[in-house]
Amino acid sequence: MAGRRARTGRGWDASPSRSGDAETPPRPRRGRPDPATDPEAGGQAPPRDEAEVAREICLRQLALRPRTRAELAAALAKRGISEEVSAGVLDRYDEVGIIDDAAFARAWVSSRHAGRGLARRALANELRRRGVDGEVATEALGELDEETEAETARVLVERKLRTARGEPDAVFRRLVGMLARKGYPPGVAIRAVKDALAAQSAEAAEFADRIDADALADAEGDVDRDSRSLD
């Protein structure tokens, strides 16, 4: 028995094969792309459904912030989605409430007025640029009444006045200009700044007392209307 030769077969105790021996081809690694469909390997990926691509574009846009229908339509057109497919996808999103221009407008007015202190005129311009229908925008802006708008103007002026420097007339012009850029009517802006200056110091109060708010508001309003008629 001592001289018995060791097994050299292909059973359970077979030795590993040497290089060059016939072997079963190795299995491809998991996760490796199929060359037949991998574009980088020279293959061609199967065409994707246009509606599926459109939905993905919309969902990516909506993940960033709420969008109006017009904004989504513009994003789809930019990516080459046909008008027919775009309309179908957006109609479906309308039906299920994923896009809602009226809700968007209400939230926009509330957020931008509270966060940036924008008045109705500036907000109307922003909604128009985002494709919100005029009637929808008017309804949303109706929730911001004149009293709330005037109070916000007063708070903005008082906040700026704490760090304002210069002569009262220069400060007056800067603050009125600030409110005008935020969309406040001349009358609201002038009265808010005049009242704030009157409460600041004796010198500022003396200057404010000389301001005829109504006459100045009428004059500013005429200039404002003329400038808008040229747009």
List the SSEs and their pairings.
Blueprint: H1 50-64, H2 69-78, H3 83-96, H4 101-116, H5 120-129, H6 134-141, H7 146-161, H8 168-181, H9 186-198, H10 202-209, H11 213-229
Salient structural properties:
single chain, 231 residues, mainly alpha, 0% strand, elongated, disordered C terminus
Poorly predicted spans: 6-16, 226-231
Largest sheet properties: none
The total count of helices amounts to 11
- E-strand count: 0
Q: What is the helix fraction of residues, given as a range?
A: 55-70%
On the 0 to 100 scale, the average pLDDT is 81
What structural category characterises the helix and strand content? mainly alpha
Terminal-residue CA separation? 111 Å
How many whole angstroms does the radius of gyration measure? 35 Å
From the spread of the alpha carbons, the general shape counts as elongated
Determine the strand fraction and express it as a percent band. under 5%
Order of helices and strands: HHHHHHHHHHH
Q: How would you sum up this structure, described in words?
A:
- This protein is mostly helical.
- 61% of the residues lie in helices and 0% in strands.
- It starts with 49 loop residues before the first helix and ends with a helix.
Offer a concise description of the structure.
This protein is 61% helix and 0% strand. It is mainly α and 231 residues long. Helix 5 (120-129) packs antiparallel against helix 6 (134-141) and helix 9 (186-198) runs antiparallel to helix 11.
